[in-house]
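user: can you give me the structure for this one chain? C-alpha cells are fine.
assistant: on it. calling the predictor now.
[tool input]
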Amino acid sequence: MNFALILSQLGIPADLTQDFSLLIVVALVSLALGLAVGRTRLVAILVNTYISFALLVSVPKEYLADYTQRLIFFFVLLIILILTTKNIFEIIVVRSGYLWRVILLGFWEVMLVLTIVLAIVPKKMALDYVSLNTYPYLTLPIFHLAWLALPIVFVILIQKNLSR
C-alpha cells in the first residue's frame, strides 16, 4: 500500500506527503508515549534525554567519530538512565484535565529526540525521512536551540498551572 498515493488521493500535494507522514508519525508516537508513561514519567524521561545529550556532546569526537556510534551511545545511555530512574514504568491513570498536557509533553519529548537524531546523522540520510523543506526547521542552530528549550518552558508552565 503506497502511503503517498493515499495522501495524494486525499488532496495533499505530492511535495508535502513526506512532511505529512512525519507529522502523523510524530503525533502517533507522542500520543502513545504520553499515554503509556504519564506526565511525571515524561518529565523524568525529558531530564534523562537532556543528560544523555549533554554527555554525548561532551565526548570528544575522536572517540565517537561515526554517526552510528554517536546514535548508539545516545540511545544506550538514554535507556540506561530511564531504566535506572525509580518506578519509571509505573502505570499512571491520567486525569481528564491533564490528558492534553501529557500528549503535548510527549510531543515535545519526541521532537527533542528527533532533532537530536537529525543533528547526529548525515544530512543525506536524514533527507530520506524528512523533506528538504522541513529539515532546516529541525536542524538549524536557532531552531535546534528552540527544540531544546521549548520542552523545559512547557514543563515550567505546567508546573506553575498545577501549583495554582
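assistant: here you go. The CA atoms of residues 35 and 99 lie 8 Å apart. Helices lie at 3-9, 17-58, 67-84, 99-120, 123-126, 135-139, 141-163.
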